[in-house]
Structure formats: structure tokens, C-alpha cells
Amino acid sequence: MTMTKRYTRLIDRYRERLPLAPNTPAICLGEGNTPLIQLHNMAADVGFDGALYVKYEGLNPTGSFKDRGMTVAVTQAVAEGAKAIICASTGNTSASAAAYAARAGITAFVLIPDGKIAMGKLAQAMIQGARIIQFQGNFDDGMRLVREIAETVPVAIVNSINPYRLHGQKTAAFEIAEQLGQAPDYHCLPVGNAGNISAYWMGYTELHDSGDCAQRPKMHGYQASGSAPFLRGAAVAEPETVATAIRIGNPQSWDLAWAAHDESGGHFAELDDSAILAAQKRLAEREGIFCEPASAASVAGALRDIEAGRIANDSTVVCTLTGHGLKDPDMAIEQGGGVTAIETIAADRTAITRVIEAAL
Fold it and tell me: Cα torsion for 175, 179, 185, 189, to the nearest 10°?
């Protein structure tokens, strides 16, 4: 029987398409190869006749898409002799950087805004041994500090301004094309620092230019209304949203993201927090998929664009879910009414049966 080789390391699978030296040892945790799941129920809810999918990046090792870029960035940093890495983060980057630094045996320094990080993400960075520096300010202040520090201190920046991060993240586009047999007609993403939408476009463009895909998708990006610099036409000084992963007022990949928008004939829009949270809950209740709030922006935006006719009704649409719902459990519990909404009754068969029958 012929066995198909199954790669457990993203770098090994796509090494020829990555800017790494051929024999560079990979720092990996088995990232990539995440599922592409069709949303039959939610598509039917809006009368969509095409195919609506989510790329569930929350099933990467640390629970977010950041692992794709981090494996490549840390691999290159170690190859260059780095003994420490640094990042500013609203959560997912810090968790991923901490994990890959631990794997490599080097130190991770993570700068987080005071009170602006979900507990699920902070817990990961802490248990994985990162040196956490909490500062008064927002993510954009953190990025400024990281750049300044790296000028004089021997630490490698692993935010998405590091080009190796984007090269790692572009591999999700490769996987989607492999899973579908082609690129989708539309690709929808939440937009915070804007590195991910830039990376996907890079990946689709490479596939198209090499002749591996006949088309490239239209790129649709969604920002939270309180943190929507693309829709305001300028940086937002004090971004605010419950979707902490996209609470960024001055995206570092601004120009690359707009290039993806313009070259693809794409669309940028904003969503208020209520729409984002409603989509998170609908995904869980209608499809059994639990993502963090920021992830749900891609689905909320896609559904709105379908209903508005901005997405053709017979098309193939992929939405990226950037992180797992357990990244921000407090928000999920709050959406369910809080722990006080859970009724406690006696350990009695009749009483429990009565509750079940009332719900059927």
C-alpha cells in the first residue's frame, strides 16, 4: 500500500515557498493543517446558494493563526543566533511567541497593554515562561516601544513587521487552495494589525503567479467600529472594542492590506461589537464552532455582504477564524448570561427530568 507523506511541521511542508535556508532546523509545534469547515446551517439561514466555509485557525497549537508565522519567525531568529525575542501584543502573539521561544530554549519578552488582554491569552504566556511587561498604553504604544528597544537591545522582533511572520501566515492560503482544489471567490478576515490579510493575499498571489491557481479571491476585511482606522482614513488614537485581538488603531501592515484590497477588488467595512458578538454566538449555536470574538467579525461581515449583494449568491466564500473561543472565556460566559444564569437544583431524578422535558 502506498502511503501519502503527512507533514507534521508547516516548514517542512512548504519549505520551498519560504525564505529559509534549505537546512535550517525548524522550531515547530505541529502547526498548520487546520480544517476547512462548511457552514451549511448559517448559509441556509441567509438563503445563500454558494459554499460558505471557515478556516478554523483556532486549532493551531496555541489556539490561533499566529503559530503559522511564529514558527518561521522564530526559526529564522534562532538561525541568526538570537537568544531572545520580543513582541507587543493584545494576546495571541504573546501566547504564540512564548510557546515557540520555550520550544527553542530562548527567552520571550512580551509587552502587553494594561488591562487590555483576555485572560485565556495571558495565562498561556505566563505558564510558558515569557517575561511579561505590562505597560500603561495601548497596542500601538507597545509597537513603538518594541521598535525602539530593538534598536539597542539584542532581541528579535516577532510582530508581523517581521517579514518571516507574513511568509508563515501565507501558508493558510496554500492549504485552502489545496482543500478546495482552487482559490475561493471571496476571502473574509478580521483586520487588526492587518498582517493576516496581507499574508493571505501574498499566498494567493504566489499560487496564481506560479500557475497553481487560476484565480485570486476578492479580499474582504472587517474592523470593529471602535477600532476602524481603515474606515476613518487615519489612525485611531484610543481604539475600543470587545474584540481584543483587533483592538488596534494604527495597523503596521496598512499599505500591504490596502494593496490586497485594491488589487483584489475587495471591500473593507466596520462592525459594531453587538454584531461581532452575535456572530460568535450564532457560530457556536448553529454550527458548533467556538471562536474568539475577533474571529467572528469575518463571519458577521461575510453574512452581511451576502445579504447586501456584495458577495455573489452562488460563490465560494472562506472566512478565517483567527482564534479559539477559549482565548476569551469570560466573554463567552457573559454572552450566556453569566454564571449566575446557571440554575442549581436538587440531585433528584424527577426535578432534573422536569427541566429536560420543559426544554424539549
Answer: -50
Domain span at residue 261 reads 10-63+168-335
Cα separation of 221 and 230, whole Å? 10
Domain CATH code at residue 30: 3.40.50.1100
Give the CB-side neighbour count of residue 339, counting CA atoms within 13 A: 2
Cβ-based neighbour number of residue 360 at 10 Å: 4
What percent helix, strand, coil does the chain show, rounded to 5? 45, 15, 35
Domain match, 113 and 192 both:
no
pLDDT greater than 80 at residue 7: no
pTM of the model: 0.93
pLDDT surpasses 50 at 4: no
Cα–Cα distance measured from residue 10 to residue 13, given in angstroms and rounded to the nearest whole number: 5
Mean pLDDT of 3-17: 77
CA distance 110 to 79: 21
Burial class of 281 by CB neighbour count within 10 A (0 to 12, 13 to 18, 19+): middle
Query: pLDDT of 173-212, one tens digit each?
Result: 999 999 999 999 999 999 999 999 999 999 999 999 999 9
